[in-house]
Prior knowledge:
Belongs to the glucosamine/galactosamine-6-phosphate isomerase family. 6-phosphogluconolactonase subfamily. Hydrolysis of 6-phosphogluconolactone to 6-phosphogluconate. Residues 15-241 form the Glucosamine/galactosamine-6-phosphate isomerase domain. GO terms for molecular function: 6-phosphogluconolactonase activity. It is an enzyme of class 3 (hydrolase). The protein is α/β, with parallel strands linked by helices. It has a single domain, classed as Rossmann fold, CATH 3.40.50. It contains 7 helices and 10 strands. Strands 1-10-9-6-2-3-5 form a 7-stranded parallel beta sheet, sandwiched between helices. The protein has a 3-stranded antiparallel beta sheet with strand order 4-8-7. The protein is globular and about 45 Å long. The protein binds ligand LXAUTJHC.
Amino acid sequence: MPKTQPNLFAFPGVDALAPALRSYIIQSQNAGVSRHGVFKVAVSGGSLPKTLAAALLAPPTGPDDVVDFSKWQIFFADERAVPLDHADSNYALLKAELLDKIPDADGRPTVHPIDTAHLDDIQELADQYEKTLVSSFASRDSVRLPLFDLLLLGCGPDGHTCSLFPGHPLLRESDAWVAPIEDSPKDPPRRITLTLPVVTHAVRIAFVATGGGKKDIMKQIFDSNNGLPCALVNEAAGDRVSWFVDEPAVEGVNFPRRAYL
Ligand SMILES: O=C1O[C@H](COP(=O)(O)O)[C@@H](O)[C@H](O)[C@H]1O
C-alpha cells in the first residue's frame, strides 16, 4: 500500500490559522465523544498554548462550532520536572494561557498534570505518569498503546517534538509509553515525554508551527529522510498528521499545501 502524506495547511498568519485549528479540534472532539464519551487529548508546551487559546477561546460562530471542555481529558505530551507553578512548567503555561481563561459556560476540562511528589526521581515521575495513562486508557495488558483522540504538538527549531530530540537514544524507545529524559539539549534538562510509538499511534496528530524562525527546520522536515523527530512522526503516521503553519514558517518549503475546507 502506498504511504500516505501528511497534510500541510498554511495560512497568512495566526488570525487565519486559529479558526481552522479550532474547526479541526472540534471535529476531533466530536469524533472522540462519539467513540467513547470523552475527548482524550495531549498537548505540548512552548509556543502552542498561546495559539490554542486564540483558537479555542474565540466565540462560537454557530451551533456546530462548540468546544465542550466538560468532555475533555487533557494530558501532557511532555513535561518538565519542575513544580506546577514553575516558570518552566508546561502545565503552568497551559493554565495561564488557556485553562484559567475558559468561560464557565464552556465547562471544565479534566486535566492530568504530573505528580510532583516524584520530581527527584524522573524515572518514577515517568512511571507514575504512565500509570495515569493506564488508568485512563485501560491496562497495559489489554492495550499495547494508549489511543489518544488527538495530539496537539509543537515543533522546536531543531525538529524536536514533545521532549524527543534529534539523535537522542530515546527515539528508539519501543516499550514505555512515557519516558524520562535527563539530558535534554534544551533547558530544563530533566523532563518526561510520550514516546514515539505512542505519538504515532494517535487517531490524529496536529503540529502547530508559526514564525520565520521555523522555516529552516521545516525545509528539512519536509525534504528528506533525515530522522528528525517531527519527520519520523510524518513518516509513521502519514495522513493522520496535519500541520497548521503560517506562511513565514514554510517559506521555501517544497511540499504541496492543502486548502483547509
Ligand atoms: O521544550 C519544548 O519545546 C517544544 C517546542 O517549543 P516551541 O516554543 O518551539 O513551540 C514544545 O513543543 C515542548 O512541549 C516543550 O517542552
